[in-house]
Amino acid sequence: xxxxxxxxxxxxxxxxxxxxxxxxxxxxxxxxxxxxxxxxxxxxxxxxxxxxxxxxxxxxxxxxxxxxxxxxxxxxxxxxxxxxxxxxxxxxxxx
Length: 95
Description:
globular; alpha+beta; about 100 residues
């Protein structure tokens, strides 16, 4: 299993709208083959900051199955305009 980690910095004052759109986007990510689970956590110390933790069966499930799908375009339309700066996404595996 692969853990995808993304720190999401949201444009100031748009967190409530981001959370509404993320609820819609969750349906998209859950439908992707190879998706296992995810969590979105809001930062306590910094307003408008989140961390997304998503588990995938393989890195290909995320990088190819999701990111190269038509459904990713829906995800992108719902969420990408909130980010400032655009997040760096990293993948982790168990030791």
